TrEMBL record:
InterPro entries cross-referenced by the UniProt entry: FAD-bd, FAD/NAD-bd_sf, FAD_monoxygenase
Species, as recorded: Chryseobacterium arachidis
Annotated GO biological process: secondary metabolite biosynthetic process
Keyword Heme: no
Pfam family, one: FAD_binding_3
Stored PANTHER family: FAD-BINDING DOMAIN-CONTAINING PROTEIN-RELATED, HYDROXYLASE, PUTATIVE (AFU_ORTHOLOGUE AFUA_3G01460)-RELATED
SUPFAM superfamilies per the UniProt record, alphabetical: FAD/NAD(P)-binding domain (SSF51905)
Protein name per Swiss-Prot or TrEMBL: 2-polyprenyl-6-methoxyphenol hydroxylase
Record key words, sorted: FAD, Flavoprotein, Oxidoreductase
Domain FAD-binding per the UniProt entry, residue ranges: 2-328
GO molecular function term, any single one: oxidoreductase activity
Upper classification of the organism: Bacteria, Pseudomonadati, Bacteroidota, Flavobacteriia, Flavobacteriales
Length: 361
């Protein structure tokens, strides 16, 4: 059986490793960061993502670490309700909890942290890859799960263009039992009447909440030092006069772990494979945050690719089938993501009715 090198231990690399482990396919996973550095913030997962996770993890582990969202409420900045919607098994969990649960399914001798892999070229249809610029790695198949700004992808598709998305985000997780109790199982989103500025808040557990803001980068500017003080100031300047729930959250939050996401997308998707290198997750198709489909898509990529590898056909045929199966759905999420971005930018009085808070295929 072929030996697979998986590059990057985010959700996509770890889920691929879990699927290969379950199917007795030989692999090794390389991650440039340390396990403690693999933190990050939170994910909203639709029902389909939970179903995929159920096949590789003990789902009760996940349920203990996050919570289901039952209802979506859309407000204006003053806190007047604009619309509400029932949600069908949408789950929210912190990235660190999901990464920790997925990593449990990968034996310690099959994952190397602090290990950066580079692609140096191709020889006889095979990628020449090296570890930490010193050691040559041997692999029959290279699974590139190295994220939206994949170096491996940029080395192969040198003409690609990554473009800044008009929206950026500040994300924060804070401890606040009282607020978590108040929010219950609701997904609250507040939208500025002129558009281009929102604040979302959800409960992660009985004592933790996740809040985020989305802002139009042509209208709102954050000091690029990105220090906790700069982020706090940005939040107070732009949300201090909103509904009291929001002003109390932003004033009462610690900003030590607040994170600013600069969002990029590929102008045009590349092929999902080249020679013996295949891309999964954000490395294949960065999806903008509005879709909430990044994790589920990464799970589905790994699931589809593993099933095709198990069939044992010719590698190019396997990769072609993988791309044929996954690309149409990704194109739908890209289209939906752009529609959700447009909607975010619009003033409230121009918002379309009955839109969903995330992308569905
Ligand atoms: C603001 C924001 C909000 C989001 N919200 C959601 C959400 O609510 N729901 C959802 O489903 N998705 C969301 N997403 C998308 C989601 O984060 C990703 O789609 C998902 O985590 C899959 O990521 P990945 O594993 O492909 O890549 P990543 O998580 O980026 O992992 C890539 C890994 O590869 C490692 N790496 C990189 N280069 C190398 C190298 N050369 N050698 C070794 N290792 C390397 C990195 O250190 C990293 O650990 C959001 C994204 C953003 C930016």
């Amino acid at each position: 059986m072929s030996k697979v090198a998986i590059i990057g231990a985010g959700v996509s690399g770890l889920s691929m490793a879990n699927y290969l482990e379950k199917n007795n396919i030989d692999y090794h996973l390389y991650e440039r960061r340390t396990p403690n550095d693999l933190k990050g913030h939170g994910f909203i997962l639709p029902k389909e993502g939970i179903e995929h996770l159920s096949s590789i993890i003990d789902i009760n582990d996940l349920y203990a670490k996050g919570s289901f969202l039952k209802k979506y409420y859309h407000y204006n900045q003053a806190g007047e309700i604009i619309s509400e919607k029932d949600l069908d098994n949408v789950f929210v969990v912190s990235r660190s909890a999901l990464i920790e649960i997925l990593a449990k399914g990968v034996p310690a001798d099959k994952i190397s942290y602090n290990s950066t892999v580079a692609l140096n070229g191709f020889s006889n249809g095979k990628a020449e890859i090296s570890l930490d610029e010193t050691k040559t790695l041997e692999a029959d198949i290279v699974v590139a799960s190295d994220g939206s700004r994949s170096r491996i992808r940029r080395t192969i598709f040198q003409g690609e263009t990554m473009k800044a998305v008009l929206e950026n985000e500040v994300v924060n997780i804070i401890e606040n039992e009282e607020l978590a109790g108040k929010i219950e199982s609701n997904f609250l989103k507040f939208h500025h009447e002129n558009g281009g500025l929102t604040f979302g808040v959800l409960k992660l557990s009985s004592s933790k909440i996740l809040w985020y803001c989305q802002f139009d980068i042509t209208k709102f500017f954050i000091n690029e030092d990105y220090t906790p003080d700069c982020i706090r100031q940005f939040m107070i300047d732009n949300f201090g006069s909103w509904n009291p729930l929001i002003s109390s959250i932003i004033e009462g939050s610690s900003y030590e772990n607040a994170h600013i996401w600069r969002v990029y997308e590929l102008e045009k998707l590349n092929p999902f494979y080249h020679e013996n290198v295949v891309f999964i997750g954000d490395a294949a198709h960065p999806l903008i945050p509005f879709t909430s489909q990044g994790v589920t898509s990464a799970m589905k990529d790994s699931f589809t690719l593993t099933n095709l590898l198990v069939e044992g056909n010719d590698l190019q045929e396997t990769f072609r089938k993988y791309e044929d199966e996954r690309r149409p759905e990704i194109n739908i999420h890209i289209k939906n993501g752009r529609a959700l971005l447009e909607q975010f930018l619009l003033p409230l009085n121009e918002q379309p009715k009955n839109t969903l808070p995330i992308s569905y295929k």
